[in-house]
Structures are given as C-alpha cells and as structure tokens.
C-alpha cells in the first residue's frame, strides 16, 4: 500500500570544531586519471556531528515526530528493512502516520567519521560475522552451524544472516559523550519527539531524556543495553517510558545482568515519581524474540504494541 | 507538493568474504553499565559491500530506475538536500516519476567500513573544512574569508558551508576495485538503470558502463573526475552519455586537465561509434556553477536539463 509523503530529506546536526596544526602538506591523487591535488591537513575539522533522515506522511497522526535510534555497531539502516527483506519499523510507523526521523549516530553511517584515533580516543571494535550470533541470542554455536534457539523469530538462514551482517559497522567504545551531545542537537533541531531506541541507543535514550526531559515526550527502549544516571532519576518524572525485552534471556550469559540493571533502574525512576512499563514479550505469550526485535519475523506484531502504548500516552490521534 | 510512494527501503549488496585467524580473544564492554562481552576477532568478515536506498513513486514515469552515485568524500546524502536546505536531486527525479536509487559506495556512509588498513590497503584521506573551498571552485582563499568567484551559485554562507562539510566523509584512494565491483553487484540486483554520477562517481560510471553495458541504459556524468579504459571504448557503443561541466574551469589549477581528459575520452568513444554529449553550462548561458552542481542554487535548473536529455533517449514517458 502506497504512502503519501508531505516532506522528506535529511540533515546533519551537532559536533564541534577541532583545530589541527603542524602537519605536513602533501599531494593526493584522489582518482586515477584525474589531476593531483594539494592537501593541507591543517585547519578546522567538524567532529562529532550526526545524520538524520526524516519522512513526513500525510495524513499525519503522530502528535510529535517519532525518532528511531539504532544500537551499537549499526546505523539507521536497521530500521529500513529486515534481513529477510520485509519492511522495517520505519515503514510501520510511517504507515501509522508518524513523522519518522531515523538517525545515524556519531562516527557511523552517513554521520561520517573522523581522524582516528585523534578525535575518537581509540580504535573501533570490529567483529566477524560469527560474533553476534550468540550475543544477540540467535542460537548456540555459529551461524555456519545454523542451530537456533527453539521458536527463534530472527530470520537466521544464511542469506538473511549475511544481509544482517552487511548492515554492521565498526563501533567505538570511546565516543559516548559525543554521541549524547549530538542526540541533544538532534532533539533541539527536531523539537519534542517520541524516541524509540534499541540496545546501545537505549543508553542514549535514558541519558538524553535525563538531560533534555522537555524534548522527549515518550521513550521506548527496545532491549536497552544500559541505564541512565542514578542521581538524575527525578528528571524522568514527566517522561513515560516503555522497556521491551525479548526471549531467551534467562539462559544468556549477559542479558540477565543487563535486564536486571534495567528493571532496577525502572524501579528507581518509579520511586522518584516516574512511569516505566516493563514489557517482557514471553510473559505476554510472544515467544522467540532475539535481541534484534525490530528485525524478527514478528517485528510488526511488536511494533503494534509500541504503537498502542504511544497512543495510550496521548501521542497519536 | 506531496509525493506518493509505492515502495521504499534499502539493502546492502556486494562484497566478499575475508577470513581472519590468529588474533587474540579479548573482552569488550560495549556500553557503560552493560555487561562485558567476549570478542573473538577471528572468523569471517564481509568486506566491500555497499548500501542503497530506493524510493518508487507512483505514477512511475521513468522506464528504468535512476541511480544517483555520489562523489569522493561524500555519501548518498549529497543528493538528499542542499547545504542551504533545499530539496536535492533525489527529490527532483522522484517528483518526475523516476524510481530513484541512492547508493553509499564501499567504505562510506551506511555501507559501513572495515578493518583499516588490512582490508582497505591504506589509510583514508581526511581534510579540514578549508580544503574543498578552492578545489570545488567556490572561491579563492578560505571559507572563513568568504570571497567567492563572481556569480557563484554554490550556497557559500558560513552556515551552509558547515552543513556541506558535515556531509563529508574520509575517503580512501585504495579501494577503487572494491567500489567498482560493488556497483556491479548493485546494477545486477536493481537491473538496467540510468546512472547519474558525480565527480569520483563518474569514474565508476564510465567503468561500470564498460564492464556491464547492458545494465547501464544511460550515463549522466556530472563533472566526472576521470575517464574509462581506453581499450574498452567500443563497449560504450550502446550507452548514451551526457557529460556536464560547470563554471570557472579555465582559471582552475586542475579542472582544465580533468575536463580535457573527459572531452578527449568522449571523442574516443564517439570515434568507436558511441554517443557522448558534452554540456558546458556556461556555453548555454548558465553561469556560476561550482563542482557541486547538484547543490548549487540553480540545481533544479540543471536537473531539468538532465531530465530533458534522459527523456530524449526514450527513458521517460
């Protein structure tokens, strides 16, 4: 079914200036058969900006824009399609009438990247295609062996796995403050929004809502990798939060800890007067979800739960 | 004016497998407050893929998809907006009824990037915001001084310049073969297309049309940085080509050479039975265009010339 767009496009926001001096001028032949160019690396660099792409459908039914913040090692592309080629959550929410804003966080995707390690404080982490199989709770062993947990919803056939891995990008563990600042600049530019954040994005979702609570009208955390600042829980009083967790957590090496942190933080936010709903999908009879819920075969079913929750908060009409 | 989309989304294509062995397993704390994860860097890497985003409007009037291939140091975002926030060529051609496919070439944007320098053969070139001012024929001196060539069409105010620079990404000079192979995979997946390529993209446009002439129905080269292979000019016999050049070329240090190579190659293609139209915008009374024609204030005027040319080749109805 077609969708009518009133506006669409992209922009970059955030970042700061860095001055570089004392480096040698050199000559670069950018393209074979071109002409050499003089490159003076000294000057002004813009570091720590991010990219965002927006689509505004008509009729518009979301009361505010809905932002999709990706997880670590990924870009905004993770919301645009699933590894088996179905429509992503970007499509789902656009079809519901939300203005959808998909971001590429600092040093990833179209945000570009910068001088490494001078501006990043370290080298990025790069892993092989075998790595996320167990970590994202697809199955034991390796993708080549192909065994999955019972009832697995992630499209784990070899072709889909490769399609997923192609979306993966290296990630830094040293750029969190830059990323948070850029999300602040994004919220500032777009204005008050509902934020849907996955995994590492959940860390920035919590932190951004604590820093700029007037800009985050609702926060949906899909398997958030971490929590906010304990000393700032009171800032979240006016921000309704939904946390969603998938299946196979009890048996995982790390996820009981990570989920435990999340649930404890939710308790602390509630104790400070805030509102956090924790949705364990298996407890609702929805089984088989990996860490990559927005890519799982039942991705639209879970998106519908998010949609209902956002509507219940008065953000959709 | 709104646009109706029949389909939209993205995918990754291309690349090859690389096996890594003998590296040390380590522990990584990806996100503060998370739980440490074991990272075994040994295994299989997918290297050299690219990203593409497609939008299919209705009614559809383009006979084939229209691909937009960015230049060096840029990503597909360069087609999505202009530095002063107007609509880009993506919008223009979508509004004309073309299915528009915007790519991010290997090691840039959402294509992701890989282990450096093991898979890239070298480190990328990164330059300061001062660098493209003269090289892209905006003006003499620096952007901070703000002097522009007479009649300059590029939006060169400080805010626009920063918006443009934020789009810039580091670029390799060592990955050309990977990029060409990925464009081949893209053409293979999407099928025969009209290709509009800018600057470094023009190099890949020529080369791709020579390698896969049945997949390139027309080639529009916007200030191509280089040419194709002299020994394969005959392969271009069935591919109509349009080359477009902007203003201020005669006074530039490099562009008389680069344009000269292009015009000489066009002659060679014609001598082999091909068809190449060379459009110097100033000769048509269109003045003030920088190297970044799709971002200049008269970007839609030039896009309309491209549109008319594509229609004259029977590719639009």
Q: What's the arrangement of secondary structure elements?
A:
The structure is a homodimer of 317-residue chains.
Chain A lengths: L2 E18 L5 E3 L8 E3 L3 E16 L7 E4 L19 H7 L4 E5 L26 H5 L22 H10 L8 H15 L2 E6 L1 H12 L4 E7 L18 E5 L9 H17 L4 E5 L18 H14 L5
Parallel strand pairs in A: 5-6, 5-7, 7-8, 8-9, 9-10
Antiparallel strand pairs in A: 1-4, 2-3, 4-6
Keywords:
about 325 residues, alpha/beta, Rossmann fold, eight-stranded mixed beta sheet, two-stranded antiparallel sheet
Describe the structure.
The structure is a homodimer of 317-residue chains. By secondary structure, chain A is α/β, with parallel strands linked by helices. In chain A, the strands form two sheets. In chain A, strands 1-4-6-5-7-8-9-10 form an eight-stranded mixed β-sheet, with helices on both faces. In chain A, strands 2-3 form a two-stranded antiparallel ribbon. Chain A is globular. The first copy, chain A, is built from seven helices and ten strands. Chain A has one domain: Rossmann fold (3-Layer(aba) Sandwich). Chains A and B meet through strand 1, strand 4, helix 3 and helix 6 of A and strand 1, strand 4, helix 3 and helix 6 of B. Strand 1 of chain A pairs antiparallel with strand 1 of chain B, so a sheet runs across the interface. Chains A, B: Keywords: Hydrolase. Chains A, B: GO terms for molecular function: hydrolase activity. Chains A, B: This is Alpha/beta fold hydrolase. Chains A, B: Pfam families: Abhydrolase_1 (PF00561).
